[in-house]
TrEMBL record:
GO CC, one annotated term: membrane
CDD domains per UniProt: CBS_pair_CorC_HlyC_assoc (cd04590)
Location, primary (coarse class): membrane
Location of the region described as Disordered in the Swiss-Prot/TrEMBL record: 451-478, 554-609
Magnesium recorded as keyword: no
The protein's name: CNNM transmembrane domain-containing protein
Topology in the lipid bilayer: Multi-pass membrane protein
Signal sequence bounds: none
Record bears the keyword Transmembrane helix: yes
Listed transmembrane segments: 37-63, 95-116, 122-140, 147-170
Length: 609
């Protein structure tokens, strides 16, 4: 029995060994394996092929046709070249898929068979499973997923070779898939998906798309679906003029304050809009002519866009406005449910600015806007003086109102008064603003009435008897603002009218008009001796500030200030003065005519020839 087992074991490839222990013979058999290097090389080659098929299946098919076209047109030079190479084999998606999957299946089966022949059934299964899973699936797919474009371009010649070898089998299968599933045209996103994609790109750290760019692009995608009714200005919020309104100074002031470039005109009823006037056309029209809006519309006929319905989309309105037919259109609503014939009722207006604001999804606030959103009545933080330059040339009360005080204070800071002590905190800055307004409110507001011989409301020139003699001294009772070589401690700001200045040994004459400062040295030197004579030649309004009143509100500069700081005020405001004056008008609504005491120096003078 012993020898028979030894012979059978040796014949089966086992090495038998016998051990004699305490009279008992023990037999053990150790299997030996003959190393076949050709088989090992074949297995390594099959593992590489399995890794290539598996990785390229994920890498090449993971690149959609759309992404390849995007990269080939807008990527870097290397990415463009790689994308163009991959597109040559990516055109027929189903044929590429069948080639890679068939090759992967064939290679994995061969690998399992060769590994099983080298070992026993269980050991071969474990070795082949581990080899295929680790080296043929996980590692290559991870690499090709991360570097799909680069590795896919490098493997294009190999893939083309296998496509040719497997064409007889892969082509019929791919034709069946094309008929059943259709061809792959790439990923196509709708508007909502594209907006989500933009949001994801803007949120990514490595993205070059900013949040503002993302918002602008998203707004452009929404633009075609926006109706006119969502951006129009409602009719009750529209500034309009009656066709019989006269173009007087009051209407001009209203046009200036509103800041509109186009104004709709209605006839009797605000819902009966008959036309439009351009504010720039009114520059050539004098208030003394007393023309009505009807006359102006006849003189300057302006084309207006045909009425549009509130349900129309913004791209259609933008197309109309781009054709040059107008930048303002009336929005109307059709009433078809009521008995009788349908009628159309205007509900608002829409301008080119409204359309563009919705396109960029942001408000365009220019220098003349009063409200950011007219529906919400949120005022624009506008730093400019909201007062016309010709305000003081019109009949006014002997006391300055709140808006006039704010405008004059802003002008003094920006043009005349240099900040001598800069505030160190917002509280000090607010206190200084209040002092400047108090200074203007308590200053002397005076008016000199000159004759108007033609009675047309124009400011008459000075009659001959008011002219100066050889010595430059006036020969009438016209008040002198300044007299040559006579000391004065008054600063004067001309608000309207015309003032004659006589200076020099030759009595050289010059003239100054509205918003002209005189006697600047009085604000820093106190009493100064003018080298000129100044007197009104027309009806003139002016503000006078004595040095004592000025110094009571504006503190004196510190002694350690630089020599430049003690040179007196300059005609142009300093940077610090501009900064301080920016907020002078912010609190204007809080002012009233009773906010400050009326100056006892305020008076009105009348000169008779």
């Amino acid at each position: 029995i012993f020898f028979r087992h030894m012979n059978n074991a040796a014949a089966a490839g086992y090495t038998p060994t016998a051990t004699l222990t305490e009279g008992v013979v023990s037999l053990s058999f150790v299997q030996w394996i003959e190393v076949n290097w050709i088989t090992l090389i074949l297995d390594a080659f099959l593992i590489c092929l399995s890794a290539s098929f598996s990785g390229l299946t994920l890498g090449l098919l993971g690149l959609s046709a759309t992404s390849l076209r995007v990269i080939s047109r807008g990527g870097s030079e290397d990415d463009k070249a790689n994308a163009l190479k991959i597109m040559t084999i990516r055109k027929n998606t189903n044929l590429l898929l069948c080639t890679l999957l068939l090759g992967n299946v064939v290679v994995n089966n061969l690998l399992s068979i060769t590994l099983a022949e080298m070992t026993s059934g269980l050991v071969g299964m474990l070795v082949s499973t581990a080899s295929i899973t680790l080296f043929g699936e996980i590692m290559p797919q991870a690499a090709c997923h991360r570097y799909a474009l680069f590795l896919g371009a490098k493997a294009v010649p190999l893939v083309k070779l296998f496509m040719v070898l497997m064409y007889p089998v892969a082509k019929p299968i791919s034709m069946v898939l094309d008929c059943a599933l259709g061809k792959d045209n790439g990923d196509v996103y709708d508007k909502k998906e594209m907006q989500t994609l933009l949001q994801l790109h803007a949120a990514a750290r490595q993205s070059e798309i900013t949040c503002d760019e993302q918002m602008l692009l998203s707004s452009a995608l929404e633009f075609p679906d926006i109706p006119v009714s969502s951006v129009m200005t409602k009719l009750q919020d529209v500034f309009m003029l009656d066709i019989d309104d006269k173009l007087d100074n009051k209407v001009k002031t209203m046009l200036w304050l509103t800041g509109h470039s186009r104004v709709p005109i209605y006839d009797r009823n605000a819902r009966n809009i008959v036309g439009m006037v351009f504010v720039k056309d009114l520059i050539l029209v004098s208030s003394s002519e007393k023309l009505t809006m009807r006359d102006i519309m006849n003189q300057y006929p302006r084309q207006i866009l045909p009425p549009i319905f509130e349900h129309e989309k913004l791209p259609d309105v933008l197309k109309l406005m781009k054709e040059g037919k107008g930048h303002l259109a009336i929005v109307q609503r059709a009433h078809i449910d009521s008995p009788g014939d349908p009628f159309y009722d205007p509900v608002g207006i829409v301008t080119l600015e409204d359309v563009i604001e919705r396109l960029i999804k942001d408000e365009i606030v220019d220098e003349m806007d009063v409200y950011t959103h007219i529906e919400q009545r949120d005022r624009v933080d506008n730093k400019r003086p909201m007062i016309p330059i010709n305000t003081f040339s019109q009949p006014t009360d002997p006391v300055l109102n709140a808006s006039q005080i704010a405008a004059i204070a802003s002008f003094l800071f920006q043009s005349c008064i240099r900040a001598e002590q800069l505030p160190n905190s917002p509280e000090e800055e607010s206190a200084l603003k209040a002092k400047v307004r108090e200074l203007v409110a308590q200053a002397s507001f005076e008016e000199v009435l000159m004759p108007d011989p033609d009675g047309l409301g124009r400011q008459a020139s000075l009659p001959p008897e008011f002219d100066a003699g050889e010595g430059g001294s006036p020969q009438s009772e016209a008040p002198l603002l300044y007299c040559k070589n006579e000391p004065s401690d008054l600063f004067t700001l001309i608000l309207s009218g015309r003032v004659e200045i006589v200076t020099g040994e030759d009595n050289f004459k010059t003239y100054c008009g509205a918003w002209s400062p005189l006697g600047l040295r009085a604000l820093t030197e106190g009493t100064f001796t003018p080298d000129f004579t100044a007197r009104p030649t027309e009806t003139t309004k002016y503000l006078r500030i004595p040095f004592s009143l000025y110094r009571a509100h504006i503190p004196q500069p510190l002694p350690e200030d630089s020599p430049e700081d003690s040179m007196g005020p300059r005609m142009s405001a300093s940077h610090e003065g501009q900064r301080l004056s920016q907020g002078l008008l912010q609190d204007t609504p809080e002012l009233s005519s009773h906010a400050y005491p009326t100056s006892p120096l305020s008076n009105q003078r009348e000169v008779h020839p």
